[in-house]
Design a protein that fits this description.
Blueprint (H helix, E strand, L loop, with lengths): L1 E7 L4 H13 L3 E7 L4 E6 L6 H10 L3 E3 L1
Antiparallel strand pairs: 1-3, 1-4, 2-3
The protein binds dioxo(di-mu-sulfide)dimolybdenum.
Dioxo(di-mu-sulfide)dimolybdenum binds next to helix 1.
Length: 68
């Protein structure tokens, strides 16, 4: 399935890479699209392998806030 996370605090290309990298490392994630201008992070994932909570935690572990 596909979800869009609302992430606060990403401002440069390195932020984008950190968030994309962290999400892509998770088993079950098949695609990540970060829009820096809006903070929207579109994630394609298999919900039988990874949960929405795990996606949010992966982003938070990089130091960004996820708005529920
Ligand atoms: Mo760029 Mo992002 O210097 O936290 S890595 S703003």
């Amino acid at each position: 399935m596909k979800t869009t996370l609302d992430v606060k605090g990403m401002t440069c290309g390195h932020c984008k890479m950190s968030v994309e990298g962290a999400l892509n490392e998770l088993v079950g994630v098949s695609g990540v699209e970060v829009d820096l201008a809006t903070g929207k992070v579109e994630v394609s994932y298999d919900e039988s392998k990874v949960t929405l909570e795990q996606l949010q935690e992966a982003v938070e572990d990089q130091g960004y806030d996820v708005v529920a």
